Amino acid sequence: DGGITQSPKYLFRKEGQNVTLSCEQNLNHDAMYWYRQDPGQGLRLIYYSQIVNDFQKGDIAEGYSVSREKKESFPLTVTSAQKNPTAFYLCASSIQAGGTWFFGPGTRLTVL
Amino acid sequence: DQQVKQNSPSLSVQEGRISILNCDYTNSMFDYFLWYKKYPAEGPTFLISISSIKDKNEDGRFTVFLNKSAKHLSLHIVPSQPGDSAVYFCAATGGYQKVTFGIGTKLQVIP
């Protein structure tokens, strides 16, 4: 079945550690995105990539890094520089020409 | 600066009645609008969309209305069912790939 997978579903991290969240899609979409959801904040864009080996900062990129070495994969690293990393992280993809965005199931990151 | 606004954080509706969720936008470059439904601890799922060349799009119990002059869109759910209880996000894009989401409206359908 086509779709987007994110792993793990729940992730715990000690303060000061980097952690990488996985996002894989088999929809053959060119564009991929990372969003963060906090209560009362809606969905905020962290990074997006329109094509392999290219990515752009979103609205809240500080403390995060990404890579796009393969079309199917867009991992997000939450670094120790991110001041409030505890949140629900959502990966999405869309066809290059725009249209509908499809979301993964999300990863709940908790920093202890 | 919120370019997509959902001013009602929550809405309660009786089962069988109509649910109306509202969304306003400020960016006149937006030309494609989407509604997503989200359950707790899950990713949003696509519900329905509308292009700026239309003023109405219908899919089963869900209808989206677009008023371009007012920069306003609404999602109507008729009849509302308890399984519709979720957070609904309005989203807009201007063809430059980035999509802007509202903060969501929590809908509760009371049996």
Task: Explain what this protein looks like in three dimensions.
The complex is a heterodimer of chains A (112) and B (111). In chain A, the strands form two sheets. In chain A, strands 2, 4, 5, 6, 9, 10 and 11 form a seven-stranded mixed sheet that branches. A four-stranded antiparallel sheet of chain A has the order 1-3-8-7, with no helix packed on it. Chain A is an all-beta fold and 112 residues long. Chain A is globular, with a radius of gyration of 13 Å. The model of chain A has no long low-confidence stretch (mean pLDDT 90). Chain A has strands at residues 4-7, 10-13, 19-25, 31-38, 42-51, 54-57, 64-66, 76-78, 87-94, 102-103, 107-111. The termini of chain A are far apart. By secondary structure, chain B is an all-beta fold. In chain B, 0% of the residues lie in helices and 55% in strands. Chain B contains no helices and eleven strands. In chain B, the strands form two sheets. In chain B, strands 2, 4, 5, 9, 10 and 11 form a six-stranded mixed sheet that branches. In chain B, a hairpin with a 6-residue loop joins β4 and β5 (45-51).
Give the helix/strand layout.
The complex is a heterodimer of chains A (112) and B (111).
Chain A: E1 4-7, E2 10-13, E3 19-25, E4 31-38, E5 42-51, E6 54-57, E7 64-66, E8 76-78, E9 87-94, E10 102-103, E11 107-111
Parallel strand pairs in A: 2-11
Antiparallel strand pairs in A: 1-3, 3-8, 4-5, 4-9, 5-6, 7-8, 9-10, 9-11
Chain B: E1 4-5, E2 10-14, E3 19-25, E4 32-38, E5 45-51, E6 56-59, E7 62-67, E8 72-77, E9 86-93, E10 99-101, E11 105-110
Parallel strand pairs in B: 2-11
Antiparallel strand pairs in B: 1-3, 3-8, 4-5, 4-9, 6-7, 7-8, 9-10, 9-11
Largest sheet of chain A: 7 strands, mixed
Q: How confident overall, as mean pLDDT of chain A?
A: 90
Tell the overall outline of chain B.
globular
**Rg measurement of chain B, Å:** 13 Å
Oligomer description: heterodimer
Structural class of chain A: mainly beta
Q: What is the count of helical runs of chain A?
A: 0
Helical element count of chain B? 0
Query: Beta-strand percentage of chain B?
Result: over 45%
- Structure summary, number of beta strands of chain B: 11
Shape of chain A: globular
Largest sheet of chain B: 6 strands, mixed
Strand content of chain A: over 45%
Intertermini distance of chain A: 36 Å
Query: What is the radius of gyration of chain A computed over CA atoms, rounded to a whole number of angstroms?
Result: 13 Å
